[in-house]
Amino acid sequence: MEKEKAEQEEQVVNPWEVSAKGTGKIDYDKLIDQFGCQRLDKSFVDRVFRLTSRTPHMFLRRNVFFAHRDFNEILDAYERGEKFYLYTGRGPSSEALHLGHLVPFMFTKYLQEAFKVPLVIQLTDDEKCMWKNLTVEESKRLARENAKDIIACGFDISRTFIFSDFDYVGGAFYENMVKVAKCVTYNKVVGIFGFTGEDHIGKISFPPVQAVPSFPSHSIYWGMGSDDASGHSNFVDAMMRQDPYFRMTRDVAPRLGYNKPALIESLFFPTLQGETGKMSASDANSAIYVTDSQKDIKYKVNKYAFSGGKDSVENHRKYGANLEVDIPFKYLSFFLDDDEELEHIRKEYARAAVTDEMVDAFMAVRPLPNMFN
Amino acid sequence: MEKEKAEQEEQVVNPWEVSAKGTGKIDYDKLIDQFGCQRLDKSFVDRVFRLTSRTPHMFLRRNVFFAHRDFNEILDAYERGEKFYLYTGRGPSSEALHLGHLVPFMFTKYLQEAFKVPLVIQLTDDEKCMWKNLTVEESKRLARENAKDIIACGFDISRTFIFSDFDYVGGAFYENMVKVAKCVTYNKVVGIFGFTGEDHIGKISFPPVQAVPSFPSHSIYWGMGSDDASGHSNFVDAMMRQDPYFRMTRDVAPRLGYNKPALIESLFFPTLQGETGKMSASDANSAIYVTDSQKDIKYKVNKYAFSGGKDSVENHRKYGANLEVDIPFKYLSFFLDDDEELEHIRKEYARAAVTDEMVDAFMAVRPLPNMFN
């Protein structure tokens, strides 16, 4: 079972926990093997460039999105002029989004623009109510607040539907939840998600909720006849840790008469403290929030960001920085769009320990064309 | 655990299976002890008479409804002028209702009239979709068909809400499902319902769906402010085998800030073949359907009804009938309103084996004032 294998490799990756052990870094190659998805190599990036006639997003170029399932089939469908739609989501557990949260939304916005496709965004307030033990009212409130930050990423109102589960579950959506649930045994969800007998039945009921948006049965979203939608494919943009939901969904889809959703997956956005884990909304100093001021950001990066520099100026000048673990450099690789500038910094930093320079580069006043609309 | 005890006593009673073993009859005293509810004795029947100023329904007089939880508190509330509402339901697994199905609806109609209270009726099409492996469409269709037979029992349109789960789940109902689910562990539902690892997660998700109508949060049903409804009690009218759902619901209710639902429970309506089980829609010859013609009924009773008469006229004249197991007599005790006539038949039959007479009495053209509106 996936969970047992994960424990043996001493890293834990599931929708509710991400932690590396041993070397302190997530071993992505191992994760790809373990989960059974595929590496996203340069040929894909080139193909996307050819098909969309625009520079691929830096997240593709930098391999922030690095794994996939059937992305090639989505590109094939697109080439044939067939329709697909996008699905991404967020579990609204904190008031403001942090940088790690923004990664899938920035990328999804790019996909929407590049391929000119519709998008559904699921806000899993029910999930957070259950896992974080929030009240229904609080989780719904957070969902609505988060929707504002998400909208600010610049999605196309004419092609984007955002929904909160508590508001939206019902009708055709609930029918599909039941259909999915009939296809998955308790033993199966234990194997995928690691539930135990002490878990409440809400958790056990939840996986179908995250599966259902993958099925183009929401002609209700679009006002189309169901015949139009039934042949559509779905392309899911998610963090790697959500993979278990989509393995389950892909297994169930054909039994319900739907195409398997394709998937593209990103690295975890590292905490300020380093690659040992994922930026978490429950530890304010592990993250930089969209609401943090410039002063906050400078303070946090200076105080908490894990440095790949050596312990003395002498050693650093001799050996350079370890860019594998240096957090400010990693942040730049996520957000600094200019490849040349990034390469320049990489080379320079590898030979210097000027942390202030890194922070300044990160905080330079300059256009970020994909960050906000 | 309740289920293990049930297996030791060799009778099985849960929402999906009712079977007696050993003596061949359901041992109701044992069931009451095992489930932990209370006997409904004559003092209740008298009190209902005094409070409602009308003859108590024959199902109360004959102890067809024989067990309860907190019925006294409902009567106390009623005396104080406080509000309560009724909740009953049906799992729509067959096209036409049979006599056993009618019992709770006939009784609920009486309760509505006697106490002048609102009523919600839940049609669990999702449950039947999952347990009977029906398609969503088929289960919704059966729910609608059954609603017609239920309405024909004569409920008050101004105070009755009937809903199908597939149509109705969502919004406040779904919020309550999540709240209930958070309060119940997987181990707990295994203990109550006997689920196993091979059961699909739809079954495990279902108990909250049957619990939620017990909570007066459906101000949405009534257009009242939630303040009005929150203090209301709920009185559930169900078959004894549904008791496990309501034990769970009563356990959860205080944690959600609601009153525990009170419950009144009926005997199982015996199959034609005898007291060994419950009339089942999946065996057409075990049941008499509302759609059966007079000829069908006469045929079925003659051919299949288990007789309590002795095996020879001589023995029957000497010992009389065993009315404990005689099905035609039992049917009369359910449906023949006239107590004197029933007593007369009891005495006469106990000394005769005239099966035709029993059938004729059962099929006599005579008013059945509570059967249809």
Question: How would you describe this protein?
Answer:
The structure is a homodimer of 373-residue chains. In chain A, strand 1 and strand 2 (17-19) form a beta hairpin. The first copy, chain A, has one domain: Rossmann fold, CATH 3.40.50.620. The relative contact order of chain A is 0.13. Chain A is α/β, with parallel strands linked by helices and 373 residues long. In chain A, helix 7 (125-131) crosses helix 8. Chain A has helices at residues 2-8, 28-35, 42-52, 58-61, 71-79, 99-115, 125-131, 136-151, 165-168, 171-182, 186-193, 201-205, 207-211, 219-222, 226-230, 243-252, 294-304, 313-319, 327-335, 339-349, 355-363, and strands spanning 12-14, 17-19, 38-39, 65-69, 84-90, 119-123, 160-164, 233-239, 262-266, 270-271, 274-278. Chains A and B meet through helix 7, helix 9, helix 10, helix 11 and helix 12 of A and helix 7, helix 9, helix 10, helix 11 and helix 12 of B.
